[in-house]
Write a structure and sequence with these properties.
The complex is a heterodimer of chains A (107) and B (116).
Chain A: E1 4-7, E2 10-14, E3 19-25, E4 31-37, E5 43-49, E6 52-56, E7 59-64, E8 69-74, E9 83-90, E10 95-97, E11 101-106
Parallel strand pairs in A: 2-11
Antiparallel strand pairs in A: 1-3, 3-8, 4-5, 4-9, 6-7, 7-8, 9-10, 9-11
Chain B: E1 5-7, E2 10-13, E3 19-24, E4 31-38, E5 42-50, E6 53-57, E7 64-68, E8 74-78, E9 87-94, E10 106-107, E11 111-115
Parallel strand pairs in B: 2-11
Antiparallel strand pairs in B: 1-3, 3-8, 4-5, 4-9, 5-6, 7-8, 9-10, 9-11
The chains are: A mainly beta (107), B mainly beta (116).
Chain lengths: 107, 116
């Protein structure tokens, strides 16, 4: 049983396209994180959400607590956005991760 | 401000041995969390330390342990290594004002452990 499900698993987009990555979870949470992992392993925290919507540059993250769903949007995608995007949820004393969405943006 | 550092970056051990990994958090951060990443299981939470005390713990056997020092540096230890312990071990630090990962996590580059 996976507490966190992400879709799609793999995504290929043309430069400039609008991209959406989805995350659904089955547990009660106090916060949801979106992480970015580049080849070589380094992880960067993009957003932490407990409600509503956050925006940083071309990235937008939304969360619907009632529906237990979050989305990560990338506007005007660029090849440097190519990475694995991971959704993670905090239940208070546990931290569960999705399996990640591998994004490739083609010039 | 220096980021999170982890040492060593790469390590090769044999089954049955033990290993100690080190993590130095960002200056001023008091919470350190450890994670294991494998191709099969993905990222999994090991434990979180705050003020030298384990605050939260994931579902790993007792062979995995950790500690935190008064300067917030943390170590994790794996005893009696198994082949399945081969993984990327990541640590992350945060301010520690909130418990349970309700803060932005800053990740280190990881230690890649290979068990032969």
């Amino acid at each position: 049983k996976n507490e966190v499900e992400q879709s799609p698993q793999n995504l290929t987009a043309q430069e400039g396209e609008f991209i959406t990555i989805n995350c659904s979870y089955s547990v009660g949470i106090s916060a949801l994180h979106w992480l970015q992992q580049h080849p070589g392993g380094g992880i960067v925290s993009l957003f932490m959400l407990s409600s509503g919507k956050k925006k940083h540059g071309r990235l937008i993250a939304t969360i619907n607590i009632q529906e237990k769903h979050s989305s990560l949007h990338i506007t005007a995608s660029h090849p440097r956005d190519s990475a694995v995007y991971i959704c993670a949820v905090n239940t208070g004393n546990q931290f569960y991760f999705g399996t990640g969405t591998s994004l490739t943006v083609i010039p | 401000k220096a980021g999170v550092t982890q040492t060593p970056r790469y390590l090769i051990k044999t089954r049955g041995q033990q290993v100690t990994l080190s993590c130095s958090p960002i200056s001023g951060h008091r919470s350190v969390s450890w994670y294991q990443q494998t191709p099969g299981q993905g990222l999994q939470f090991l434990f979180e330390y705050f003020s030298e005390t384990q605050r939260n713990k994931g579902n790993f056997p007792g062979r995995f342990s950790g500690r935190q020092f008064s300067n917030s540096r943390s170590e994790m230890n794996v005893s009696t290594l198994e082949l399945g312990d081969s993984a990327l071990y990541l640590c992350a630090s945060s301010l520690g004002l909130e418990s349970g990962h309700r803060e932005t996590q800053y990740f280190g580059p990881g230690t890649r452990l290979l068990v032969l």
